[in-house]
Automatic annotation (TrEMBL):
Its cofactor is FAD; AMP. This is Probable electron transfer flavoprotein subunit beta. The lineage of its organism: Eukaryota, Fungi, Dikarya, Ascomycota, Pezizomycotina. It comes from Pseudomassariella vexata. Heterodimer of an alpha and a beta subunit. Residues 37-232 form the Electron transfer flavoprotein alpha/beta-subunit N-terminal domain.
Length: 269
């Protein structure tokens, strides 16, 4: 097996803990739709790395640390497209163990559609001579779950999605397991390939203070979409974003007969 040059795409999103803490404890700023109803308001809300991307970094670092790939790991490069604040998640990724980072600068609000991201990543793969791309199966803001599949299509590489386990076999073969209804499914493919990660793959580590300090000295290359020969073409238009209707309060019944009557009244029986 040839040495791995792993590319790990990551994204800066609203911190998932904000939604969790609001839902259960009401402790943080509630995510809300912006005034133009084109998306979620991001100003004044805590951001962090997309949780599925944390899994991708962790898995890449574990492959190196545990020496599970026969050819070893030559390089782990993280890449993110976004405004200047996207460098925060890139530094976090390097503190977790990535060797270097690429920041593709995009203006605040100029979000990229999955196809544009996939084209950007294809150019980055060619530039970095990557032979393995590990990325989250989806980002928690748009939940599109399209980028990995589009990237594999553009590259003409095999893909394995929603990985819950990654193993390396003989030669350039890779075994990837994912959970399916009623069990698990394992596929086998050869490098180069694209793998998307799911939540059961691993438990991401916390970046230690010494590693956070070391990450400040690791190389971070700034680029633009034009440097990669990619344009931010918009093919979709968000017509309207609205909050879900508030839930109606429940009711109590005295006994089973009352429950049946209520269900009939609601048309459930």
């Amino acid at each position: 097996m040839s040495a791995l040059r792993i590319l790990v795409p990551i994204k800066r999103v609203i911190d998932y803990a904000v939604c969790v803490n609001w839902a259960f404890y009401g402790l943080m700023v509630k995510p809300r739709v912006n005034k133009a109803q084109t998306g979620v308001e991001t100003a004044g809300v805590k951001h962090s790395m997309n949780p599925f991307d944390e899994l991708s970094i962790e898995e890449s670092v574990r492959i190196r640390e545990k020496k599970t790939a026969p050819g070893g790991v030559e390089d782990i490069c993280v890449i993110s497209a976004g405004p200047p604040k996207a460098q925060d998640v890139l530094r976090t990724a390097m503190a977790m163990g990535a060797d270097r980072a690429i920041h593709v600068e995009v203006k605040e609000g100029d979000d990229l559609e999955p196809l544009a991201v996939a084209k950007m990543l294809r150019a980055a793969v060619d530039k970095e001579k990557s032979n393995l791309v590990i990325l989250g199966k989806q980002s928690i803001d748009d939940d599109a779950a399209q980028t990995g599949q589009m990237l594999a299509g553009l590259l003409g590489w095999p893909q394995a999605t929603q990985a819950s386990q990654v193993k390396f076999g003989e030669g350039d073969s890779v075994l990837v397991t994912k959970e399916v209804d009623g069990g698990v499914e394992t596929v086998k493919a050869k490098l180069p390939m694209v793998i998307t990660t799911d939540l059961r793959l691993n438990e991401p580590r916390y970046a230690s203070l010494p590693n956070i300090m070391k990450a400040k000295k690791k190389p971070l290359l700034k680029m633009s979409l034009s440097d990669l020969g990619v344009a931010n073409e918009r093919r979709l238009k968000i017509v309207k974003v609205i909050e879900p209707a508030p839930r109606q309060g429940g009711g109590k019944v005295e006994d089973v007969d009352g429950l049946i009557s209520k269900l009939k009244e609601l048309g459930a029986l």
